[in-house]
Amino acid sequence: MPLRERPLFPEGEEAGEKGEPLAGRPKNPVQREVTQAAREGKETPMRRTLPLLLLGLACGGVDSTEDASTPPDGGAMEDAGAVDSGALDAGAVDVGTDASITDAGADGGAPTLCTARGLPGTCLDVSECVETRRPTPGLCPGPSTIQCCTPRYALTCDPNARPQPNAGLTEAPGLGGCPDGMLRVDTFCIDEFEASLVDADGGAPVSPFHHPGTRRVRAVSLAGAVPQGYVTGVQAAAACAVAGKRLCTDDEWLRACRGPSSFTYPYGDTRQPGTCNDARAVHPAVELYGTGASWIFSHIDSPCLNQLDGGLARTGAKSGCTSGEGVFDLMGNLHEWTADPAGTFRGGFYVDTVINGSGCLYATTAHDVNHWDYSTGFRCCAD
């Protein structure tokens, strides 16, 4: 079977402001950031060059109502379609030149499979081979419009696999009278690290590169783990509750990040580039799909996004990215959901910690708690 990725939105569909969804779908990420900036009286990102905007964009739209038995994040990678060179020209992705046909000779029954440039594909009419896919002529039976349709980008990971990079890791004892994996900040406890997930019953690790779906999971705070992305605010709150914890309030999260001196960044008042995982040079969607065209931001549920080199880091990998009380990675790496019922995630992520505020002051409020994408993570608090 070819590896394919399905679009999250029908082509051309958009949405209105938060609270006024169109067809129940969040709007395009460029619009979201501009809307939020305008609402807060900031300079809108559109006034900057579009390449800088695309490199810094933090969000994309996915609403989660999927069952865990059906990978909702491109784990089934359906209809992976094509790229055209957009406003940010990341260059075409060269997937090679060798092309050969496999199992040709469809008779209108089962799909005819083919291979082009080393990638598995299906013989389709060129009118159907669009978006993240590209056609290659001469490899399929029938008229010239039937061509071998394959992903346009070179897959560097198997989107159907569910890696378990956190197997064998366990939570450390809590500090200051706090539960395991936590330490005390002022009057409350907070996870020392961004959360990972394990099965709520057997304790088996959950792949951090996939949306957890409807399975019952428990939050854990692990040193040296790949933290859980692809999670909604609802799922994050439930995972904390199963662990006997809760999501942090906005005030608690800010207090933990800013420390007793109320710094702008966890480590002080002056930005130190590279101290936190906060400024990847190329947006992962641009790298994965080989283009800066706007459609890629409707395909940011792919489990491959957080597996690219130089992207999501293991917890505690940036030793200098700690708060005054020793909490890691509150700035960058993954957005972190808070307990705001309207939907807020804080701290930025590994591409951007600037657009919606600097460092600890970064807050995204353009999504409700059912949103998820590769950049959404969390940590828990407790009394």
Which helices and strands appear, and what pairs or packs with what?
Elements: H1 29-39, H2 50-56, E1 99-100, E2 113-116, E3 119-125, E4 133-136, E5 146-151, E6 182-185, E7 188-191, E8 195-199, E9 217-221, H3 233-242, E10 246-247, H4 250-258, H5 284-289, E11 335-337, E12 345-346, E13 363-364, E14 376-378, E15 380-382
Lateral strand order in the biggest sheet = 1-2-3-5-4
| Straight-line N-to-C gap | 50 Å
Low-confidence stretches: 1-108
Count of DSSP helices?
Answer: 5
Name of the CATH architecture of the largest domain: Alpha-Beta Complex
Q: In which range does the helix fraction lie? A: 10-25%
Q: What is the 3D shape?
A: elongated
Percentage of β-strand residues: 5-15%
Could you explain how this protein is built, in words?
This protein has 383 residues and is an alpha+beta fold. The chain folds into two domains: 1-89 and 155-383, paralog of FGE (formylglycine-generating enzyme) (Alpha-Beta Complex), CATH 3.90.1580; 99-151, no CATH class. Helices cover 11% and strands 15% of the residues. It contains five helices and 15 strands. The strands form four sheets. It has a five-stranded antiparallel sheet, with no helix packed on it. It has a four-stranded antiparallel sheet with strand order 6-7-15-10. Strands 13-12-11-14 form a four-stranded mixed sheet, with no helix packed on it. β2 and β3 (119-125) form a beta hairpin. The radius of gyration is 21 Å and the shape is elongated. It starts with 28 loop residues before the first helix and ends with a strand.
